[in-house]
Amino acid sequence: MIVPYTHVMLLGGVLFLLGMICTLTRRNLIMIILGLEIMLNAAAITFVGAGLHLQQIEGQAIALFILAVAAAEVSVGLALVVCIYRQTGTVDPQCIEGNKCQLKPDQTG
Amino acid sequence: MFSKPVPADSLYLAWAAAVFPLAAFGIIMIFLRRLPKAAAGVSLSAIAVSLVCAVCLLARHWHLEMPLESTVQWMASSDFEIPVGVLIDGLSLLMLVIVSGIAFLVQLYSIGYMAGDPGYARYFGFMSLFAWAMTSLVLAPNILQLFIFWELVGLSSYLLIGFWYEKLSASQAGKKAFVMTRAGDTLFFCGWLILLVWGGTVSILDLNHSAHSLSQAMVTASALLVFGGIAGKSAQFPLMTWLPDAMEGPAPVSALLHSATMVAAGVFLLGRLFPFFSQSDAAMTVCLFIGFVSMLLSATMAMVSRDIKQVWAYSTVSQLGFMIMALGAGGYAAGIFHLTTHAGFKALLFLCAGMLIHACETNDMFEIGQAGGRRMKLTVLCMTIGALALSGIWPFSGFFSKEEIMAALAAANSPVWYIGGLAGVFLTAYYSFRLIFVILLPGSTKAHGPGSQSGPEHARAVMHAVLVILAVITLVMGFFAESLQNLLTGQGVNAPGVHGPFPAKVVSPVLAIAGIVVAWLEFGRKDSARIGFAGRISPVARLFGQRWYLDHAYGWLVGRILDRGIAEGCQQNENRVIEKILHTVAGSVTACGRAAAGWHRAMIQSKLMVVFAVVFGLTLILLAA
User: Fold this and answer.
1) From CA B72, how far away is CA B403, in angstroms rounded?
2) Which of B159, B237, B358, B510 has the fewest other C-beta atoms within 10 Å?
3) pTM of the model
4) B211 and B187: one domain?
5) CA–CA distance, B386 with B397 (Å, rounded to integer)
6) Residue B108, domain CATH
7) Mean pLDDT of chain A, nearest integer
8) A30 contacts in B (CB within 8 Å)?
9) Within an 8 Å CB–CB cutoff, is residue B603 touching chain A?
10) Which residues of A touch B (CB under 8 A)?
11) Complex ipTM, two decimals?
12) CB contact under 8 A, B605 and A97
């Protein structure tokens, strides 16, 4: 194994954190789904790295499952976002929930 | 031991004397509320049985050498046990006869006096309760049992003083009597706790024979505390102001209260624990002093009062002061003998006052005089006999007992007491005959006599008969002085018959006659001004009329310290501290709840953040563990 195990774990952790921050902070549903995808990928990297480290094939198998789940999830999620946008005219979750905010162009980042 | 067991038949007699009135109380209160005639009958027969038992006991144990005591164990705790039982000695026998006798006569009189009252049955029920409490009190062999009945006496006098509870002043007077005596009882309670905890015994005989483990200072402390209870019950300074207000009850209640039961209980307790008190010189001096102050203060109050019952009430306080002075000066037999004679003539005076008030429908002696109260010849005659006895004129009973007291005071350590006693004798004669002359020799009378004498003829005859019986007792009681003293001192109570020097025997009757003469000059003469010498100086009259401002002092004390000090402080504490703390606690809980609820209410990302935070936290905890 050329790449050290700790580096793989670190990469997984950092990616997960980034995804988490993205999910928690962005106010655009599409970006939130993107953050979720990043977290799923971080989990997949961790599984692959651990499988390599422990010399077990199940790690890579689960990574494949994760890809499949992620593909399904993103397609359903994007479909929902499109639906929501059509109904409410916004992709800001706060505005969808509370109907309280006027949409400002600079807030939809 | 200091006693012998009570023979079985005497024991039954003693129990019967106490228990019959209780049974009467129960029967009246449960079954006879709506049957006034039956209630009166039950109550009277119960107290008659008591009286017969008491007289039998007295006759049986007339020559008692040693106190008789029988107890059974009531309850036991780790290292002390509480017995109940009876103690029979000269004092309790004498008191038993006085209590049941006076209670019987007063109840007999009440049949006529209370006729037609809506609370007739209730009245007799309370009377029976009173009789039970008092007879049991005099038989109690230990202070705990005595204290229980002491409180019951206080309760029943509260019920009777406030008998006409629809009247505000009556219910207030009842409350005042209850609260003020309770102040004294608290001291009494502390006193006997000291006896129980440090002295190791509450048995009266043990205490009287120094069979306790108290140091001298503890003896003084407990004696003084017990004396606080006595001062409350016997209406001594400074707890004396309840007694004049207790006049709000029916007149027979006052008669009973002032002669044989409530106020007598205090002096009885002092006599009961007399050897114990004499172990402490300080306590005896306090007794002397308190008796002295109450005697003179209340005598001056009686000089200016216009209310006939109130004059007798003040004179009761004054005479109780005499008794306590006598006991404090070491004259055991003198004090108790005066209690005995006083019970007779004070009951007589109150019952006479009741007759006059009933007939003239006013309490004011000047109005009674003008309404022609003197036309009720028998009543006025009996009242005069009572007043003569109260003033201490030969051959009425008061003369003998007062002579004994003056002899005891003359033998006391300081001449102040004796001189004060003489002043008291003079004032007593003066205020009694002020009242008599005002009623007997009014300046002008209305044309017709006192209003219709209410009640049926036979009831009035019974009332008159009671007056005559009491008057006869007042007349002859004095001649039994010797034998009563033998009965009282026969069992080693260390009170040798004190006989004062010769002048003492002359001075006090002379002063009493002088008091009567002064009263005649000011109120009896044809062209007299009808203003007493105290009434001429208006500040003095005001001072006496306002009861030396004692009630004002209490009002001020209660207003300032209780209402504005303690109560206000408690309220501030409630408002500012307790409520504030509660508000803070409640507010912070609500705020926490709001904050926690906020996480759930907020947008989906915040909820997610909470989930993440919790997961991280759990992970950390699991890793640490």
Assistant:
1) 42
2) B510
3) 0.73
4) yes
5) 9
6) 1.20.120
7) 86
8) none
9) yes
10) 20, 23-25, 32, 93-94, 97-98
11) 0.76
12) no
The shortest CB-CB distance from B604 to any of A20, A25, A97 is to A97
At A99 the pLDDT is 55
Flag residues of chain B having pLDDT under 70.
1, 211-212, 372-373, 443-459, 490-505, 524-537, 540-541, 544-545, 547-548, 599-602
Q: Does B604 touch chain A (CB under 8 A)?
A: yes
Kindly determine whether residue B605 and residue A20, on different chains, have CB atoms separated by under 8 Å.
Answer: no
Both B104 and B213 in one domain: the answer is no
Neighbours of B53 (CB within 10 A): 24
Report how far apart, in Å, the C-alpha atoms of A45 and of each of A96, B135, B560 are: 34, 101, 83
In a domain, B553, yes or no: no
Place of tokens 């402490």: B280
* pLDDT tens readout for residues B479-532: 777 777 777 776 444 444 444 455 556 777 787 788 888 777 777 666 666 666
Looking at residue B222, its pLDDT comes to 85
Q: Domain limits of chain A? A: 5-101
CB-based contact A32 B605, cutoff 8 Å: yes
Question: B474 and B379, same structural domain?
Answer: yes
Which of residues B253, B273, B293 is at a domain's end?
Answer: B273
Q: Does domain A5-101 have CATH number 2.40.110.10?
A: no
**Chain A residues in contact with B612 (beta carbon < 8 A):** 20, 24
Supply the DSSP symbol for B195.
I
Residue A2 phi/psi, 5-degree rounding, is: -75, -45
My answer on whether B536 and B406 are in the same domain is yes
The answer for residues whose C-beta is within 8 angstroms of residue B311's C-beta and 6 or more apart is B302, B305, B365, B431, B432, B435
In a domain? residue B517: yes
